[in-house]
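FAQ: What does a ligand-bound record look like?

Like this one, built around flavin-adenine dinucleotide:
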Amino acid sequence: MASETKLAGNPPGEALLAKFAAIVGEKYAIREPTDMASYLTELRGLYTGIAAIVLRPGSTQEVSEILELANEAGTAIVPQGGNTGLVGGQIPFNGGDEVILSLSRLNRVRNIDPGSNTMTVDAGVVLEQARAAADEVDRLFPLSLPSEGSCQIGGNLSTNAGGAAVLAYGNARELVLGLEVVLADGRIWDGLRSLRKDNTGYDLKNLFIGAEGTLGIITGAVLKLFPKPEAKATGFAGLASVGNIGKLFDIARRIGGHSLTSFEFVPRIGIDYVLRHGDQIRDPLSQAHDWYALVELSGQDSGGGPAELIEAILGEALEAEIVDDAAIAASLGQADDFWRLRELLSEVQGHEGGSIKHDVSVPIAAIPEFIERASKTVTGMIEGARPVPFGHYGDGNIHYNVSQPVGADKEAFIARWDEVNAAVHAIVTEFNGSISAEHGIGRMKRDLLPGVKSEVELDLMRAIRRTLDPNAILNPGKVV
Ligand code: FAD
Ligand code: ZN
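The answer part, i.e. the structure of the complex:
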């Protein structure tokens, strides 16, 4: 994992802390170590830091005042949404000089306009609530992640989150029409437009999306809504090889067209983990298969709807012996059960000891060869290491995780993180892939970036950052 150095900022003294607290009110300025604890560590426990104070502003205006003061004083600000990020971007370093700015009180749905298929929300609205608000007006907000009960729209946009419906609807970036952003000097950029077409110069909103809190603080967003699909069909297929998953994907793409919403894959070892450690989990297929694909279609219920399409897809694949066995969910409950086999994977790996993770992407056609080569390399380096490659096949996005050998020492295994990363990322690079497909750079991959970006790209990134944040107060030491 990346080094933990950061240029020292100015530790805020008592007087400055009092000024920060006065902006949000004492009640929303957290200074007690026990009350701060949940903001200082992330889910996996990989990153823990120290903050001078946690501020919980209640309006865009308060965010603006905080940044204006921080910019004058040279105080580092760490923006934090739902704290579900997986690369440590939302966690301060150990210096104790940084201020955490939590967006959680900015949690209003400001406006919802089914006629224009748009919704304007505060950045701190939890993804699940945004989805529910859309649902209430018979619309779909398609972003969907296993962390949706806690992660916030601002965090989703700042990490350009992906998830299970990217195939049909795109990443978070594609779901945004406008943004409201507080700049490093406290100025508020009101870009809350809901236009589908707007070619008036640079697309500024796209700078802030995926910037992981290094260019500005997102305080509001106009999101795209979609018609709510009337029907859904979910299939779970057992296959003998990754190559066959690719062939099934081709068929699903051809027959399913735009109705194909998700195409995920899991290896047998992953299903074993979920069966072992998950609650009330059942294997939907009677026999074990080396690989599994989860295929979901959604659309309208009229002729040629999802139910017919999935039967056609799996029927053709069974006939061609690409798929060895398959089940189609007979109810929404059963579809949820299929999804749990996929979604519990991140969680259950922890019960199998240490896990060295990679969130990578390669061109879709290269997935089988990538997995074969990565697994050969990793098991060659560490005898008995257990690769668990799973993820979003249809996006070329593989969560190439590696569990420790059974009975091995966890610490000793995790100590080889960087070395294993380097070997796997080298293969990714050979395929012209990405070393961070969905989770971002944060702290974890900061020092890897120079190895995969050209000098020109790095120069551009640094120049943009210096321009928007000349005093380097926004999430210093993260990303680049
Ligand atoms: P945080 O973790 O709080 O912050 C993430 C980054 O954004 C940090 O750098 C932070 O400084 C910055 N930030 C947060 N809010 C703002 C803001 N308002 N303005 C500026 N910067 C801000 N990701 C995927 O893409 N696909 C998945 O399928 C997926 N599955 C996940 C499953 C689990 C169980 C978990 C725990 C995480 C998963 N993630 C996934 C990671 C994903 O990035 C986050 O869940 C989510 O997008 C981050 O939102 P958050 O509100 O928790 O942000
Ligand atoms: Zn994912």
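Follow-up question: can I read anything off the structure? Yes, for example: The domain at 231-346 is CATH 3.30.70.2190 (Alpha-Beta Plaits).
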